[in-house]
Amino acid sequence: MLVRQDLSYFFMGKKVIRIKDIAEKAQVSTGTVDRVIHNRGRVAEDVKERVNSIIKQLNYEPNLMARVLSSRKTFNIAALIPDHKIDAYWSAPKSGIKKAESEFRAYGTKIEYYTFNPYKVESFVKKADELTKEKPDAIILSPIFYKETLPFFEKWKSQNIPFVLFNTEIHEYDPLSYIGQDSYQSGLIAAKLIHYGNPDPSTFLVAHIDEGTANAAHLEKKEQGFRDYFEQNSLSDYQIIRAELNTAQLSSFLNAFDTILRENPELKGIYVTTSKAHEIANLLQQKHIRTLKIVGYDLVSKNIKLLNNGMISFLINQHPKGQGYWSVSHLVDHLIFKKEVPMLKYLPLDIVTKENLNYYLDSDE
Amino acid sequence: MLVRQDLSYFFMGKKVIRIKDIAEKAQVSTGTVDRVIHNRGRVAEDVKERVNSIIKQLNYEPNLMARVLSSRKTFNIAALIPDHKIDAYWSAPKSGIKKAESEFRAYGTKIEYYTFNPYKVESFVKKADELTKEKPDAIILSPIFYKETLPFFEKWKSQNIPFVLFNTEIHEYDPLSYIGQDSYQSGLIAAKLIHYGNPDPSTFLVAHIDEGTANAAHLEKKEQGFRDYFEQNSLSDYQIIRAELNTAQLSSFLNAFDTILRENPELKGIYVTTSKAHEIANLLQQKHIRTLKIVGYDLVSKNIKLLNNGMISFLINQHPKGQGYWSVSHLVDHLIFKKEVPMLKYLPLDIVTKENLNYYLDSDE
DNA sequence: TTTGTTTGTGTGTTCGGACACGCAAATATA
DNA sequence: TATATTTGCGTGTCCGAACACACAAACAAA
Do A356 and B365 touch (CB under 8 A)? Predict the structure, then answer.
């Protein structure tokens, strides 16, 4: 008969501590140590303290492999996200979620998708209701409807279901974690880029296109960052104007834009705070106007085309794929590995030109 | 007595395949399946085929947790890297390696560091010799000395020790993987940035500072990218000049630079292809020249200071930390998880301004 | 005092895979 | 033919942690 002896092995000169080692040192059984670790009760107070102090002293770190393997739970994560068939932007976060899903599948995570129409509140509420009924172990969502989301937060909170937000930040009922971009900083960057390309005093337009109240806070922060750049650098001879445009009503959109062009002959740059820079760029292309610098957001295909032909100067990439990925990753760290996860994770803001576009298109963060 | 029955559990509707399941279906024992999987021989040919076809058919994916847990090997990885006390640039890759080390410690990886003086070949050779004697399970290195590295590659190759290169690319004796930046593309980007800020025809300087032959290929590629940008965009009325400067001999450096300034009154921008943009920026600051746009590389503290006060317009970040991290990560994927790893990984090129600097300073990729 | 419940602790099985060993049958060598 | 060796396959233990269960002692209720 084979008996491999108890190695209690060493790693980098240090003994690797197992529950068994703690048990021996504390003169109790592994079961007791386990009960202490998981606070499952049924342990005498003095023993508990003794074990805990030994755990601390030996700097015990549980073996995650063994933990995952032995407690073979499956965690159901619900992802409440906008339908990418309706707004292409959302395909990136989804692919990030999918990437994480496949990476963490082995740990027993399962993701159920609830997709809603980003332009219809009812659709959001309906899906959120469905999801809540299923009582998932955790939730990922982009709460683009502020008012309607709050009651759900309350419910999840009371049911102790952790949720992670991405893309859109809501502070109330603190989520486990928020993954997103720093809108204010991105406004600063946009300003820098536009200013850098137009060193002489002129007029710049901040255009909020096609996003109503849903993202209002974000857009405001972006605009504030943009304006503050000029303020901070004492560039008071630059004029910043703003416009809210909606391409749904095409003719009024065209009119409004024409008016802006007419009334601002000194206009040299446009900062589009949403992913709709292509709407403006297309228009300018049709009008054969090539003197305006456009800075926009997000690597959606329509933007990419116009970045490549030079109509758009820069796109700021908010790592939408990374947002999806990290949302899941944080949840897995929390649920499975019981790690502390940061409450806030701002993803980097990448400045994308046609020259470095390739990296961001299929970067697998 | 408790008997938990064999669950052969389901996940997302699909049965999760274990060795046991394969064994049952193939009417053999798990030991046999194991021998097939690991090609340990001692299996009849027909059985082997049967098992293999079932593995394929059921799309068996080994449980990595279980694998790591049961085969409790420790892998010794040797990291051969330049001393960051001599050149600050190298602290970033090292911190990336350390990050990966702590992340993968649980999988049984141990990293031994061999640091050499990046300015002394002998130092490199000595450390490489030491390392080779230790017969590590894998090697990570930045082969900044081309000629001297080749014999080691040969040796490691013959000893079947996989090695990963980062930062500096050498094609011969193909490494397991190369992690680095696309120098040519970064030249293009630099050109775009400098041109964007100087739309009117003028002169630009490509300055190679303080790096001799070690990085020659890289620097050439950068310059080529820079020049090609103007070519591709038919900007033939821009003049591109080049200079190789060495700050070690200070007076000749100053003289050379003065000459350049004197002879090129139309000079509007400087592209520093190394991490030494601060040398130029400092000089210009002393001379109170603020009309030149400088684009350089790497977030070393001296550069950061000058980025923040506006002397340097942009820094291109080559993700040095990520290079270290991904080197280890690829090795772990290969050694432990037996995954396919890409032969080439170009990390993104980030355009850093003082506005988005924060993200890159402690971004934990 | 007897019976029931709570508290404290130890034991044994399991997760999926790796590998050492046992052992019979087939084949080779004497 | 007797003895060695190789080949093919099964069994059992272990990795470290989780958790179900067994069971004695302490305490409470009858």
Answer: no
